[in-house]
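Supplementary Methods S3. Input chains for the assembly prediction are listed below.
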Amino acid sequence: MTHGRTVIRNGLVITAADELHVDVLIDGERVVALAATGSPEARAWQADATIDATDCYVIPGGVDAHTHMELPFGGTFASDTFETGTRAAAFGGTTTIVDFAVQSVGHSLREGLDAWHAKAQGNCAIDYAFHMIMSDVTEQSLKEMDLLVEEGVTSFKLFMAYPGVFYSDDGRILRAMQRSAGNGGLIMMHAENGIAIDVLVEQALAAGHTDPRYHGEVRRELLEAEATHRAIQLARVAGSPLYVVHVSAEQAVTELAQARDLGLNVFGETCPQYLFLSTDNLAEPDFEGAKYVCSTPLRPKEHQAALWRGLRTNDLSVVSTDHCPFCFVGQKDLGRGDFSKIPNGLPGVENRMDLLHQAHLDGHISRRRWIELACATPARMFGLYPRKGTIAPGADADIVIFDPRERYTMSAATHHMNVDYSAYEGRQVTGRARTVLSRGAVVVDRGEYLGHAGHGTFVPRATCQYLH
Ligand code: URP
Ligand code: ZN
Ligand code: ZN
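Predicted structure tokens for the full assembly:
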């Protein structure tokens, strides 16, 4: 339920910019004031409800800019619906997702976007927005890009991988980039050389290499780096900005760093699975490695240092989940005996905020950088700031009371995602969302779900707020 006025007292408010001992006043769906804890101003606030955040952090709700609820892939569908996936996100302290609507080949962007609105509307626990996957770059779909930007779908994902499904060749990519240079849209790139990868897949299978670990071997680091380099050069030719999704290889980070050193509007995203998991997981016996099949693939552990460094230097500026869950039983096992038939994707929408807090405790990033990577920068990158991604007067009251001392063990037995395994099974973390507010309404409190499907609304987005 939305309260009239709520005050959050005695917490440490952490944003990307500040760490302040202030109380927060919420009126309806918005934050209306911040004032020093114990100050006459804060003490004078009258409210209908008070949340005591003593010994807790008060942080903006997470913004997960890369999810795939109900994504059709490899003959099946991602197992989280908008209802189950956004509820799980809320449990994990994420209060906004940006999901990918899909244009199918032979269909318009409008048809794809309408279909995704129909899936999401009335079902979400938290607010949501859309990117558009372009699978068919035509004169018609290029024109439609302008309309979508106007209605708040301001980013477009293209694929250099998956020939015959989502793949676009360089000419189509260049045309889409040229269009986005004119209309303010942001091109998001799945940067892997899918044509070369398909040759290696065929050769691996012919040699009898059918286990999940070969998924990682054929999707070579160099083919991620090469595609990243090519995408950057195409964006330079088009004069458009570029956002490279799910970066996993050190060599791809190097390409991004070089582009950024030239002052280009090139941005990189990585995901928790690349920071915390590795090819060791893909090599787990008895087909268990299938749980970790995603693209770009997990890399050898040695790549993680480069990803953490990129997150500190801002060559990587966003951590999203690429949440795309498939159950081990009945979905991942479509690829027993042929790794290329394992649906690609990992669950994680519930785990991101806590894993990144753990990364702070482990010394990889500061507390404010945690909030910057998980809340503020994704909000700015995708035109949601300052409504989302911060705690300030006028912002939506999407707020998490985060207990930095609660220790727990991640497990499929206790998580809320609709998937039969956890990619982080048995991992102990310290720090957890205790109370979660979405537009002023408490949707999760101490492990209890208090929200409802349909509370979450579609948020039209402005264009990228980082362009120069
Ligand atoms: O393996 C992945 N990443 N699945 C989701 C689709 C994509 O490419 O993001
Ligand atoms: Zn992708
Ligand atoms: Zn994805």
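The first strand starts at residue 5 and ends at 9. Residues 5-59+389-449 form a domain with the Urease, subunit C; domain 1 fold (CATH 2.30.40.10).
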